[in-house]
Automatic annotation (TrEMBL):
Residues 129-202 form the Isoamylase 1-3-like C-terminal domain. It holds the Pfam family ISOA1-3_C. The lineage of its organism: Bacteria, Pseudomonadati, Pseudomonadota, Betaproteobacteria, Burkholderiales. It comes from Paraburkholderia piptadeniae. It comes from the Bacteria. This is Glycogen operon protein GlgX.
Amino acid sequence: MANGEENRDGSNDNLSWNCGAEGETDDAGIVQLRGRQARNLMAILFLSQGVPMMLAGDEVLRSQHGNNNGYCQDNALSWFDWRRVESASGMLRFMRELIALRKRHASLRRRRFLTGRPAQGHAHPGIAWHGERLHEPEWQNPRARLLAFTLGGDDPGEALLHVVLNMDDSACHVALPTVLDGRRWHRIVDAAQSSPHDIVPAPREAATELGHCLIQPRTDVVLEAD
Protein backbone atom coordinates (compact mmCIF):
# COMPACT_ATOMS: atom_id res chain seq x y z
CA MET A 1 0.00 0.00 0.00
CA ALA A 2 2.82 2.43 0.79
CA ASN A 3 3.94 2.65 -2.84
CA GLY A 4 0.50 3.62 -4.10
CA GLU A 5 -0.13 0.37 -6.00
CA GLU A 6 -3.08 -0.70 -3.80
CA ASN A 7 -1.54 -4.19 -3.36
CA ARG A 8 -1.58 -4.82 -7.12
CA ASP A 9 2.20 -5.09 -7.50
CA GLY A 10 2.86 -8.54 -6.04
CA SER A 11 1.45 -12.04 -5.90
CA ASN A 12 -1.03 -13.02 -3.23
CA ASP A 13 0.19 -16.63 -3.40
CA ASN A 14 2.46 -16.28 -0.37
CA LEU A 15 3.56 -19.65 0.99
CA SER A 16 4.46 -18.30 4.40
CA TRP A 17 3.57 -18.78 8.03
CA ASN A 18 3.63 -16.13 10.75
CA CYS A 19 4.27 -18.72 13.54
CA GLY A 20 1.20 -17.57 15.44
CA ALA A 21 1.23 -13.76 15.29
CA GLU A 22 1.18 -11.26 12.45
CA GLY A 23 4.05 -8.77 12.32
CA GLU A 24 6.22 -7.75 15.24
CA THR A 25 5.61 -9.54 18.55
CA ASP A 26 7.03 -9.74 22.06
CA ASP A 27 5.96 -13.38 22.44
CA ALA A 28 9.23 -15.14 23.28
CA GLY A 29 8.05 -18.50 21.95
CA ILE A 30 7.10 -17.06 18.57
CA VAL A 31 10.33 -15.08 18.30
CA GLN A 32 12.31 -18.23 19.11
CA LEU A 33 10.42 -20.29 16.53
CA ARG A 34 10.90 -17.65 13.85
CA GLY A 35 14.64 -17.68 14.53
CA ARG A 36 14.69 -21.46 14.26
CA GLN A 37 12.81 -21.34 10.96
CA ALA A 38 15.27 -18.77 9.60
CA ARG A 39 18.18 -21.06 10.54
CA ASN A 40 16.37 -24.01 8.94
CA LEU A 41 15.88 -22.18 5.67
CA MET A 42 19.46 -20.99 5.44
CA ALA A 43 20.83 -24.40 6.38
CA ILE A 44 18.81 -26.04 3.59
CA LEU A 45 20.07 -23.43 1.13
CA PHE A 46 23.74 -23.89 2.03
CA LEU A 47 23.48 -27.69 2.18
CA SER A 48 22.11 -27.79 -1.36
CA GLN A 49 24.18 -28.32 -4.49
CA GLY A 50 24.77 -25.32 -6.73
CA VAL A 51 25.55 -21.70 -5.93
CA PRO A 52 23.56 -20.38 -2.92
CA MET A 53 21.59 -17.25 -3.77
CA MET A 54 20.52 -14.97 -0.93
CA LEU A 55 19.46 -11.35 -0.52
CA ALA A 56 21.72 -8.93 1.34
CA GLY A 57 20.35 -8.63 4.84
CA ASP A 58 19.08 -12.20 5.12
CA GLU A 59 22.12 -12.91 7.27
CA VAL A 60 20.84 -10.45 9.91
CA LEU A 61 17.11 -11.28 9.64
CA ARG A 62 16.31 -8.20 7.59
CA SER A 63 12.58 -7.89 6.95
CA GLN A 64 10.46 -5.97 4.47
CA HIS A 65 7.49 -6.27 6.85
CA GLY A 66 5.47 -8.45 4.50
CA ASN A 67 6.09 -6.38 1.37
CA ASN A 68 7.14 -8.80 -1.37
CA ASN A 69 7.90 -6.11 -3.94
CA GLY A 70 9.89 -3.41 -2.16
CA TYR A 71 12.30 -2.51 -4.96
CA CYS A 72 10.73 0.94 -5.48
CA GLN A 73 10.65 1.82 -1.78
CA ASP A 74 13.39 4.35 -1.04
CA ASN A 75 12.83 4.22 2.70
CA ALA A 76 13.46 2.06 5.76
CA LEU A 77 11.52 -0.78 4.12
CA SER A 78 14.34 -1.45 1.66
CA TRP A 79 17.36 0.16 3.36
CA PHE A 80 19.97 -1.97 5.12
CA ASP A 81 19.92 -1.20 8.84
CA TRP A 82 23.49 -1.76 10.01
CA ARG A 83 22.35 -1.87 13.63
CA ARG A 84 21.06 -5.37 12.87
CA VAL A 85 24.66 -6.60 12.73
CA GLU A 86 24.61 -6.28 16.52
CA SER A 87 20.97 -7.08 17.27
CA ALA A 88 21.05 -10.22 15.08
CA SER A 89 24.65 -11.21 15.81
CA GLY A 90 23.63 -14.82 16.50
CA MET A 91 22.15 -15.24 13.02
CA LEU A 92 25.17 -13.53 11.48
CA ARG A 93 27.46 -15.98 13.25
CA PHE A 94 25.31 -18.91 12.08
CA MET A 95 25.65 -17.74 8.48
CA ARG A 96 29.41 -17.31 8.74
CA GLU A 97 29.80 -20.85 10.08
CA LEU A 98 27.51 -22.24 7.37
CA ILE A 99 29.78 -20.67 4.77
CA ALA A 100 32.82 -22.17 6.52
CA LEU A 101 31.11 -25.59 6.59
CA ARG A 102 30.41 -25.38 2.88
CA LYS A 103 34.01 -24.44 2.15
CA ARG A 104 35.25 -27.33 4.29
CA HIS A 105 33.26 -29.97 2.40
CA ALA A 106 33.73 -30.41 -1.34
CA SER A 107 30.73 -32.78 -1.28
CA LEU A 108 28.53 -29.66 -0.92
CA ARG A 109 30.10 -28.05 -4.00
CA ARG A 110 29.96 -30.77 -6.63
CA ARG A 111 30.33 -29.95 -10.32
CA ARG A 112 28.68 -33.19 -11.47
CA PHE A 113 25.31 -34.78 -10.90
CA LEU A 114 25.06 -37.17 -7.97
CA THR A 115 24.73 -40.78 -9.11
CA GLY A 116 24.38 -42.65 -5.80
CA ARG A 117 27.54 -44.63 -6.56
CA PRO A 118 30.79 -44.44 -4.56
CA ALA A 119 33.69 -42.50 -6.02
CA GLN A 120 36.79 -44.52 -6.85
CA GLY A 121 38.51 -45.62 -3.64
CA HIS A 122 35.61 -44.46 -1.46
CA ALA A 123 33.51 -46.86 0.61
CA HIS A 124 30.39 -44.67 0.72
CA PRO A 125 28.14 -43.54 -2.17
CA GLY A 126 28.06 -39.91 -3.22
CA ILE A 127 24.59 -39.68 -1.71
CA ALA A 128 22.26 -42.05 0.13
CA TRP A 129 18.67 -41.12 0.98
CA HIS A 130 16.90 -41.98 4.24
CA GLY A 131 13.79 -41.43 6.30
CA GLU A 132 13.53 -42.15 10.01
CA ARG A 133 15.00 -45.53 9.05
CA LEU A 134 18.12 -45.88 6.97
CA HIS A 135 17.64 -46.21 3.20
CA GLU A 136 13.87 -45.79 3.52
CA PRO A 137 12.97 -42.28 2.29
CA GLU A 138 9.21 -41.83 2.19
CA TRP A 139 9.01 -40.48 -1.35
CA GLN A 140 5.45 -41.76 -1.87
CA ASN A 141 4.04 -40.51 1.45
CA PRO A 142 2.39 -37.09 1.00
CA ARG A 143 2.33 -36.66 4.80
CA ALA A 144 6.04 -37.27 5.26
CA ARG A 145 7.76 -34.38 7.02
CA LEU A 146 11.25 -35.82 7.44
CA LEU A 147 14.04 -36.43 4.97
CA ALA A 148 17.65 -37.41 5.59
CA PHE A 149 20.66 -37.99 3.37
CA THR A 150 24.31 -38.94 3.71
CA LEU A 151 26.96 -37.31 1.52
CA GLY A 152 30.20 -39.10 0.73
CA GLY A 153 33.08 -37.20 -0.84
CA ASP A 154 35.20 -37.89 -3.92
CA ASP A 155 38.32 -37.92 -1.75
CA PRO A 156 38.58 -41.06 0.43
CA GLY A 157 39.83 -38.89 3.29
CA GLU A 158 36.93 -36.44 3.19
CA ALA A 159 34.59 -36.54 6.17
CA LEU A 160 31.05 -37.81 5.68
CA LEU A 161 28.05 -35.57 6.26
CA HIS A 162 24.65 -36.77 7.43
CA VAL A 163 21.79 -34.28 7.13
CA VAL A 164 18.36 -34.63 8.76
CA LEU A 165 15.52 -32.24 7.90
CA ASN A 166 12.59 -32.58 10.30
CA MET A 167 9.75 -30.27 9.35
CA ASP A 168 7.21 -32.04 11.57
CA ASP A 169 5.92 -30.48 14.78
CA SER A 170 7.04 -33.57 16.72
CA ALA A 171 10.49 -34.73 17.74
CA CYS A 172 11.78 -38.05 16.39
CA HIS A 173 14.65 -40.48 16.68
CA VAL A 174 16.52 -41.26 13.46
CA ALA A 175 19.02 -43.99 12.74
CA LEU A 176 22.57 -43.06 11.78
CA PRO A 177 24.67 -44.86 9.16
CA THR A 178 27.59 -46.97 10.28
CA VAL A 179 30.96 -45.36 9.56
CA LEU A 180 34.32 -47.08 9.22
CA ASP A 181 37.89 -46.45 10.38
CA GLY A 182 36.88 -45.62 13.93
CA ARG A 183 35.03 -42.46 12.91
CA ARG A 184 32.12 -41.18 14.94
CA TRP A 185 29.23 -38.87 14.19
CA HIS A 186 29.39 -35.41 15.72
CA ARG A 187 26.41 -33.02 15.69
CA ILE A 188 27.79 -29.83 14.16
CA VAL A 189 24.51 -28.07 13.24
CA ASP A 190 21.29 -28.08 15.26
CA ALA A 191 18.83 -25.33 14.35
CA ALA A 192 16.85 -25.95 17.55
CA GLN A 193 19.71 -24.58 19.64
CA SER A 194 20.45 -20.93 20.27
CA SER A 195 23.75 -19.28 19.41
CA PRO A 196 26.53 -20.35 19.75
CA HIS A 197 25.31 -23.93 20.15
CA ASP A 198 23.34 -23.97 16.88
CA ILE A 199 26.51 -24.54 14.87
CA VAL A 200 30.08 -25.42 15.87
CA PRO A 201 33.19 -24.67 13.78
CA ALA A 202 34.76 -28.14 14.09
CA PRO A 203 33.45 -31.65 14.87
CA ARG A 204 35.80 -32.11 17.80
CA GLU A 205 33.82 -29.38 19.59
CA ALA A 206 30.49 -31.17 19.08
CA ALA A 207 28.62 -33.90 20.92
CA THR A 208 29.15 -37.48 19.76
CA GLU A 209 26.13 -39.43 18.52
CA LEU A 210 26.06 -43.25 18.52
CA GLY A 211 23.63 -45.31 16.44
CA HIS A 212 20.77 -42.83 16.43
CA CYS A 213 20.00 -39.25 17.38
CA LEU A 214 17.03 -37.22 18.60
CA ILE A 215 15.83 -34.47 16.25
CA GLN A 216 13.67 -31.71 17.72
CA PRO A 217 10.50 -30.47 15.95
CA ARG A 218 11.01 -28.23 12.91
CA THR A 219 14.78 -28.63 13.01
CA ASP A 220 17.65 -29.19 10.60
CA VAL A 221 20.54 -31.21 11.99
CA VAL A 222 23.92 -31.90 10.38
CA LEU A 223 26.35 -34.53 11.63
CA GLU A 224 29.94 -34.95 10.52
CA ALA A 225 31.92 -38.19 10.76
CA ASP A 226 35.42 -37.43 11.91
